[in-house]
């Protein structure tokens, strides 16, 4: 925000004097990354097959179940008893394991048919499921899991192990456990099932049309052919034009700035701006004013150091801006602040960013301001912002400090550094600001939950699930906050997991413009 200091004002008045001053910042967005992963489910073992399953081992041991032809004691084809009978067929060892695992068919009960858990290429139901016998000559390639356990050698009504290729309902390899969904399934077992949100897509408030509105797809430049820029002049031209653009920044661009003088990047609507490689630097603040559908990713912006002149922020989002996603960026040593959202902007999400200070001797390390003043009517009902998986490092205050908005601060890391400066205040709810502070990890923070500026209708901060380590001052909230209208709990983690997760992945760490984490 571009604001000149009013030396005659008190510090508190200065904080409110930001009204009417335009903050400038650059928001470069790349695709979203996340460390949101969920554990893959494994099929439940059915248990070993009945003792009459025709082999040394009831679950289709390495020798006894090899096709039932030579060693299946219940019959050469692994008939009603030999091949797993009613329960084992395709269950523990017959059917799936037996029929589809060949030599490995018995070692993995539950019809998983092979070393790879279940459903792999070798897993029961896989291509090797029947070649080796699973109860008969054909009980397997298609009937995996049902191949050996039916009244016939193939474990089902026909030689293929049932009507379904995985030994489903008609296969005799168990209703579902063997040869069914659990074995031979493409994704159920042994597959790389993805859980959680798409890490290349925005989350949080950026994906809503407003506080009470519906879902919005944040696409930036969409499917536009990427443009690689190697000069700041080209970057400025494409970022500010009227077309949808996907812009890849190649190299360090910009010549820096001081006060209100120097390079500055204006970003307009329908833009995706992303650093081409990890640590891509932009020596210019970003300003997003009245723009929508903007994505900025994988960029490092370093200011000249904080001061009280209230000059340019590293990134400033204001006006009627909306649906803005800032992901995997780094904002260091901003003059007035690192990343401010003011004057009626709305629906913004910050994910996997670092907001930090590294230069000692600067007393204005105030990082993230939301609204410039208690008297900012254009911000009423707006300024809804999500902060998730970010890292505040050595910031004195404003992490964030808000007015008016519905602010969600979830799964972030806060760390102090006395060599740089004090860490006085953490998350601050000011005039009419409603904050949900959830599952964060605060380390070495003074007053991590700041209620000292709470004022105005609806000002509240709910603090839940947070972890406080070597902190002093208030750690409790003041009431019940809003309920987010978007999904986030499916990938939110406990506070104890935040530190490792954020320290590993936050910042401009993306290996390419299309990487997600």
Describe the structure.
This protein has four helices and 27 strands. It has helices at 11-16, 96-101, 232-240, 495-505, and strands at residues 227-229, 245-249, 257-258, 261-262, 265-266, 271-275, 286-289, 292-297, 300-302, 315-318, 322-327, 330-332, 339-341, 348-351, 354-356, 369-370, 385-388, 391-393, 401-402, 406-410, 413-415, 427-429, 434-438, 441-443, 449-450, 460-464, 467-469. The longest helix has 11 residues, at 495-505. The protein is globular and about 50 Å long. Mean pLDDT is 73; it is low at 1-197.
Number of strands: 27
The number of helical runs is 4
What general form does the structure show? Answer: globular
- Biggest sheet descriptor: 10 strands, parallel
Arithmetic mean of pLDDT: 73
Return Rg in Å. 30 Å
Query: What helical percentage do the residues reach?
Result: under 10%
Helix/strand/pairing category:
mainly beta
Question: Low-confidence segments, ≥5 residues, pLDDT <50?
Answer: 1-197
Strand order of the largest sheet: 1-2-6-8-11-14-17-20-23-26
Cα distance spanning the termini: 30 Å
% residues in beta strands = 15-25%
């Amino acid at each position: 925000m571009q604001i000149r200091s009013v030396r005659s004002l008190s510090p508190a008045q200065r904080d409110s004097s930001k009204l009417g001053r335009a903050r400038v910042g650059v928001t470069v967005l790349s695709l979203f990354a996340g460390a949101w992963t969920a554990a893959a489910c494994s099929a439940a073992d059915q248990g070993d097959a009945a003792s009459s399953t025709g082999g040394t081992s009831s679950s289709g041991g390495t020798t006894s179940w090899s096709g039932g032809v030579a060693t299946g004691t219940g019959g050469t084809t692994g008939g009603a008893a030999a091949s797993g009978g009613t329960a084992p067929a395709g269950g523990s060892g017959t059917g799936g394991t037996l029929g589809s695992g060949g030599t490995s068919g018995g070692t993995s009960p539950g019809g998983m048919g092979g070393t790879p858990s279940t459903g792999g290429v070798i897993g029961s139901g896989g291509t090797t499921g029947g070649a080796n016998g699973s109860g008969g000559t054909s009980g397997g390639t298609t009937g995996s899991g049902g191949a050996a356990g039916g009244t016939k050698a193939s474990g089902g009504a026909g030689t293929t192990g049932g009507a379904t290729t995985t030994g489903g309902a008609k296969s005799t390899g168990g209703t579902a456990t063997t040869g069914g969904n659990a074995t031979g399934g493409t994704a159920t077992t042994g597959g790389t099932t993805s859980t959680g949100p798409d890490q290349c897509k925005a989350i949080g408030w950026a994906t809503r049309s407003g506080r009470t509105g519906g879902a919005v797809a944040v696409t930036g430049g969409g499917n536009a052919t990427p443009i690689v820029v190697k000069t700041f002049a080209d970057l400025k031209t494409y970022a500010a034009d009227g077309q949808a653009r996907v812009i890849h920044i190649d190299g360090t661009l910009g010549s820096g700035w001081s006060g209100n003088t120097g390079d500055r990047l204006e970003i307009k609507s329908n833009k995706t701006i992303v650093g081409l490689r990890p640590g891509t630097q932009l020596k210019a603040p970003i300003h997003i004013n009245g723009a929508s559908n903007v994505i900025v990713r994988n960029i490092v912006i370093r200011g000249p150091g904080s001061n009280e002149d209230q000059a340019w922020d590293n990134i400033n989002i204001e006006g009627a801006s909306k649906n803005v996603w800032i992901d995997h960026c780094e904002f260091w040593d901003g003059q007035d602040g690192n990343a401010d959202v003011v004057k009626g902007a709305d629906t913004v999400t910050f994910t996997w960013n670092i907001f930090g200070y590294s230069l000692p001797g600067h007393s204005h390390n105030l990082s993230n301001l939301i609204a410039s003043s208690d008297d900012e009517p254009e911000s009423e009902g707006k300024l809804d912002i999500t902060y998730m998986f970010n890292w505040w490092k050595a910031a004195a205050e404003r992490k964030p400090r808000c007015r008016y908005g519905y602010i969600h601060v979830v799964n972030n890391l806060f760390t102090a550094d006395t060599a740089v400066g004090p860490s006085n205040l953490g998350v601050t709810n000011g005039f009419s600001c409603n904050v949900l502070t959830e599952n964060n990890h605060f380390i070495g923070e003074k007053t991590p939950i700041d209620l000292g500026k709470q004022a105005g209708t609806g000002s509240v901060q709910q603090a839940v699930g947070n972890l406080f380590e070597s902190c002093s001052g208030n750690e409790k909230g003041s009431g019940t906050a809003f309920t987010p209208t978007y999904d986030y709990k499916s990938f939110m983690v406990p506070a104890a997991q935040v530190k490792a997760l954020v320290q590993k992945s936050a910042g401009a760490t993306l290996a390419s413009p299309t990487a997600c984490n």
